[in-house]
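Q: I'm writing up a methods section and want to include an example of the input and output format. Could you take the sequence below and give the corresponding predicted structure tokens, formatted cleanly so I can copy it straight into the document?
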Amino acid sequence: MLWILMAVAGASRTASDDIAAIKRAAAGDDGALAELYDRHGRFVFSLALRIVRDAAEAEDLTQEVFVQAWRQAARFD
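A: Here is the clean output for your methods example:
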């Protein structure tokens, strides 16, 4: 699931801002994760909704994507 966020971050117009936020998240800055969520949460939710076709499940998946992004931010290269 983390790949979804990384793909979005790599393709966005603010890719350098996203990369910086991911690095800050890896250092423990929870504000950086909030930044990423604000920028990409809607897209991740929309993608999940298209895949699972259930809003509640899409919300859970969106949350899981960002939890994994938080937990694995140090693995971003």
